[in-house]
Amino acid sequence: MSLAIVHSRAQEGVAAPPVTVEVHLSGGLPGTSIVGLPETAVKEARDRVRVAIQNAQLEFPSRRITVSLAPADLPKDGGRFDLPIALGILAASGHLPKERLAAYEFLGELALSGELRAVTGVLPAALKAAHAGRALIVPRDNGAEAALAGGGVAHGAGSLLEVCAFLRGAAELPPATAPASGGDEIAPPDLAEVRGQPQARRALEIAAAGQHHLLFVGPPGTGKTMLASRLPGILPPLGEDEALEAAAIRSVAGCGIDFHKWKMRPFRAPHHTASAVALVGGGSLPRPGEISLAHHGVLFLDELPEFDRRVLEVLREPLESGHIVISRAARQAEFPAAFQLVAAMNPCPCGYAGDPSGRCTCTPEAVRRYRARVSGPLLDRIDLTVAVPRVALAELGGAAAPGEASAVVRARVVAARARQLARAGKPNAALSNREVLRDCALAPADRTLLERALERLGLSARAYHRVLRVARTIADLAGSEAVSGAHLLEAIQYRRALGGG
């Protein structure tokens, strides 16, 4: 029977659904047809495969070739199916043993010379192949990435001939290995380099401990960006599964994986000219955006009011849900987006409102319009808003004592996060409203204090629960089992920098 079956994987969001490549040879006029909802790049595979087989000094069958990519209703795109299609044609024509194909999955784009070129989305495919109990054969340039999956075997090959020789048993393809790596090889910027700003440092520690969103407000040059870049260094280390999830998104996006720091928390800082698609993802073939590339890490938006308001509004849903669904006419893709938002902005157009020097010349109306560029519903989702004033020159000098190092702060953050995970299995920022009421029970006097403060500030019901989550984090940092009035007062003050919720 001139039918061969080869296993491969498609790319759908960060998923890697299985694709069965069925190749059938029959009589009739020579030609190749590919069915199964292929995109243009997949349709063009028939020409790449034919020339690659011929240039590899292998015989291309002069028969009618039908290639079916199943399931038929799953869109297929890219050159990732070149290798499995070529192997299916060679197996169906008797040049390769069909029984050897069942134990492997194949991905790879073919050059006309028969060499294998790297493709995107290999890590998700490697994880799924290992779960299915099959080894994965990929281009050599993708071998290290595939080896990150662990729990399975991945082989990197340089050409179609190497794969054919391996399947015939005439040569070996050594298992791919990932370079030795770890989050400690490249140290993130240290918080000790930040001079002064005790309130901002305190807010940064609270944000890290509870995974809260944070907004810095202050004049130019006061250290807002410097503070934000130190957040990854005080966050708890990534777990193995979290690091693989973040690396899988980079694989799908085609950004490449830095094996020296793939276990570090991502830090993304898009420019304020970024479009909505660049920020949340999209395109005719949906790709992840900055919020997904910041998954399990930090998304830093500097000069927040300079972003297009419509761009900022698309953040509202993923800030709470932790994922983004990209819907297009032909297909839909879902990407994880459990990021921690840190934003920075000036208090007015000139940047110096409230500065003791009196340099600000902005009118109250100009200040109002400037701050209105960031909508109330978006600000309502930010747990901590803190002023970052100018630092006295004396504090910047070398004689001033440096602040605490990131390692010291991180130890407290890790201890506070451990309390949260032991109590609820999640960071405080992710607590549901019911869990907030359970874990943040207040004494009657403290509840009255909170209600009066929120009424005076005009805060929403969402802000009510967010204040309680922040207070719970402050209590965890202090090692307190209960949320007290002091914890509440500190949490409330972080809602006041822009005049409320």
Mean pLDDT: 92
CATH topology of the largest domain: Rossmann fold
Summarize the biggest pleated sheet: 5 strands, parallel
Indicate the structural class: alpha/beta
- Count of DSSP-assigned helices: 22
Considering DSSP H and I runs of 4 or more, what fraction of the residues is helical?
25-40%
Outline the structure in words.
The protein has 501 residues and is of the alpha/beta class. The chain has 3 domains: 166 residues, Ribosomal Protein S5, domain 2 (2-Layer Sandwich); 212 residues, Rossmann fold (3-Layer(aba) Sandwich); 71 residues, Helicase, Ruva Protein, domain 3, CATH 1.10.8. The chain contains 22 helices and 18 strands. The strands form 6 sheets. Strands 11-14-17-10-18 form a 5-stranded parallel sheet. The longest helix has 19 residues. The mean pLDDT is 92.
Key phrases:
alpha/beta; 18 strands; 38% helix; 501 residues; single chain; 4-stranded mixed β-sheet; 3 domains; Rossmann fold; Helicase, Ruva Protein, domain 3
What is the topology?
Layout: E1 3-9, E2 18-26, E3 31-35, H1 40-43, H2 45-55, E4 64-70, H3 82-92, E5 104-106, E6 109-110, E7 116-117, H4 122-132, E8 135-139, H5 143-147, E9 154-157, H6 160-168, H7 198-210, E10 214-217, H8 224-229, H9 231-234, H10 240-253, E11 267-268, H11 276-280, E12 281-282, E13 287-288, H12 290-293, E14 298-301, H13 309-313, H14 316-321, E15 323-327, E16 332-336, E17 340-345, H15 364-371, H16 376-380, E18 384-387, H17 393-396, H18 406-424, H19 433-439, H20 444-457, H21 461-477, H22 485-493
Parallel strand pairs: 3-4, 5-8, 8-9, 10-17, 10-18, 11-14, 14-17
Antiparallel strand pairs: 1-2, 2-4, 6-7, 12-13, 15-16
Helix pairs in contact: 2-3, 7-18, 7-21, 19-21, 20-22, 21-22
